[in-house]
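In this supplementary section we document a worked example of the pipeline. Step one takes a protein sequence of length 524 as its only input; no multiple sequence alignment statistics are reported here. Step two produces a three-dimensional model, which step three serialises into structure tokens for compact storage. The input and output of this example are shown verbatim.
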Amino acid sequence: MTAVEIATFGRDERLEVALHLKTHEGEITEQICQRCGELLEFLEKEESIRVLRQLVSSAVKSLGEGDLGYFLLTLIRLATRNLHLQLRINEVSLLGEHTFITLVEYVTANPSPERSRDLVEETYLKFTSDEVRVKLFQDYMRLQENVLFRQVEELSLLGQVSQMSESNLVRDAQIPERLLAKLMTILQADDGVAFFHSQFFRVIYSKLSGQERTRQEPAHILEIFGEKMHPSLDPQVLSAFESVIKQGFYWGVQHKEREINEMLEDYYPRFHANPPTPKVQRILDFDLDNPLTKICAAHSYMTYDLHIDDENYGLIFVNRTDPPDFTEEDFRFLTTFGGTLRQIVGNVILTNRLKEMATTDPLTGVNNRRQFETFMEIELTRASRYSHSVGLAMVDIDHFKQINDSYGHQVGDYVLVELCKVLNEGLRATEIISRYGGEEFAIIIPQADYDVTLVVGEKIRSLVEEHDFEYNGLKLPVTVSVGVALFPQMAVNRNSLVEMADKALYKAKRSGRNRVCMAAVEEN
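The serialised model returned by step three reads:
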């Protein structure tokens, strides 16, 4: 038997008492608040109640388990994290004593299971024993060292953020990964997502504990329906049921960053318009609209809004899958980290806006060729690091010279501007549109495999074909030819990728125009 075990009572007796006390946790917390008011006077009342409720809950759990270990761990964590080391070790011990004394008084004054008082008193005596006091002191000193170490780590992380330059943020794909990983380590988070949307750069990085687990298909459910109920069910109903079951059991564990990015692009406007209360989000506070709480085993999470303006926005999300909850101190650090990062990002955006005339096509408003090359290098670097693929679609307007010659350059300019508008509205935010030259455009398709690249190419073609191009009552039959290629399957760098996509584009032109062609590997 260890120094913290309680051995006199049987398991069933302990569980009966623990269950009884668990149902009266609120009343017990009120009593202990009156007893510990002066001891915790430096805390806000709401935080004080929350701390004492956690302490009561951990004491009840230790009674049920017959082991003081969980209570001691909770007591030390609360003293170091929630109480910010403002209690001396003897005051921390007194807080534990008050907890058990309150439990003794409660079971004495209220109807309780037989021998409840004996169990609580024995546990209290065990807590006040020399062995437990020594362990409490050792754990307190060790966690105190951890708190001091954390403070050093926090200052180090904030220093890294404040020293970031434009080239670090825009060109180094590892920066978001390193910052989020260190933030998660400091906050002891299990899940983390960093998301930022800008006309100058995009960041999406996720580290989800669910990615390390595999949820299995509920085969037994499908087997029951297939064998026993199949004859009596409409085949379409059964098929729909199977689809729902598979979606529910598979989709929530292995998300690609592309999918998370699309979810957050959809969710962010609602998040920013109705932000959650600026505090730690616990189970009863959850924003049920937040898609990240559906793909994580959320227990306690925090979000920070990185909003700069309507074109530059993002958020940071960290989650714990198990107790203890994040503390207000955790939230204050996240706010400091997020505020520092937002200021740096804002400066980068301001700098880039000054450069925008050099990187944006003045007629269409999309990226020019120079900016395309910058984005292309960023995406290829990211793809090489994370073993992703990147698609490229080269798009050329069919018979554009005839439009200029027949109707004039004003009409030609209208076609160019309207086509970019159609693509901006019809394509996903992750696809990066650039004017490559004349009537030729380049669309970067991040994290796209062979099938996705072809689908995007066909979407580009159909968007243009189905759109009504009309200038001053003049209807214009506008179509495009599209050539697509994939890195690294078909190219080794930016130049060879553009070359492969161009070859596919010329093939589409030779094949009759208004079509999509994929580059062949053997052409490289």
